[in-house]
Amino acid sequence: MAKKDTGRQVIASNKKARHDYHIVDTYEAGLALMGTEVKSLRMGRASLVDGFCQFTNGELWLENVYIPEYLAGSWTNHAARRRRKLLLHRTEMDKIEQKTRESGFTIVPLSLYFVDGKRVKVEIAVARGKKEYDKRQALREKQDNREAQRAMRYKNLG
Q1: Which is nearest to 101 in space by CA: 52, 50, 55?
Q2: Is the pLDDT of residue 1 over 50?
Q3: Does any domain span residue 2?
Q4: Strand partners, 122
Q5: Which of the chain's ends, N or C, has fewer CB atoms near its CB within 10 Å?
Q6: How far, in Å, CA of 132 to CA of 113, rounded?
Q7: Residue 148 located in a structural domain
């Protein structure tokens, strides 16, 4: 049999997190989901915008991530914003917990995706919040780079 494509099939991404935070470390974690949640994700319906992660009793939980109810679901449907357990190795969880004990660090979800078309994974990041002037400076640098690329393109064409 031929090997399947091992790429990611991205369901949702949190672009605002990359704008609002300095990303320090990233980790890939599994999610403990119900069947109707997986079916809803297969339809491409999810939002990570207000999501965050938090430790409770030594376990890492994904909170406030919106996965809408499955349309064809019955009374067994899930709650749309329920807490979901993240599945990580203990050593990774210890590193993350140690980092978040330092002031100013938080854990935010960056993207939600399928791996090998089967398993749902979430990319989480240990991050520090940006100040307002950092955000403006990043936007200014991005715009300057874009203008420089545009100028180089016109110079090469003409």
Answers
A1: 55
A2: no
A3: no
A4: 29, 112
A5: N
A6: 30
A7: no
Place 86 in a pLDDT band, splitting at 50, 70 and 90.
very high
What pLDDT, in 10s, does the model give residues 100-152?
888 888 999 999 998 887 888 999 999 988 777 777 888 888 888 898 888 88
Q: What is the domain count for the chain? A: 1
120 has which bridge partners?
114
Q: What is the mean pLDDT of residues 82-107?
A: 90
**Which residue range(s) make up the domain with 76?**
8-130
Q: Are 33 and 99 in contact (CB under 8 A)?
A: no
- Which tokens sit at 152? 């180089």
Residue among 77, 78, 96 at smallest CA distance from 28: 96
Could you count the other beta carbons within 10 Å of the beta carbon of residue 63?
Answer: 16
Amino acid letter for position 70: Y
Report the residue count for the chain.
Answer: 158
**Residue whose tokens read 């809408």:** 68
Outline where DSSP puts E strands in the chain.
8-13, 21-31, 52-56, 59-63, 84-87, 105-115, 119-129
Q: Is residue 140 part of a domain?
A: no
CATH number at residue 101: 2.40.280.10
Q: Which helix (H) or strand (E) holds 92?
A: helix 90-101
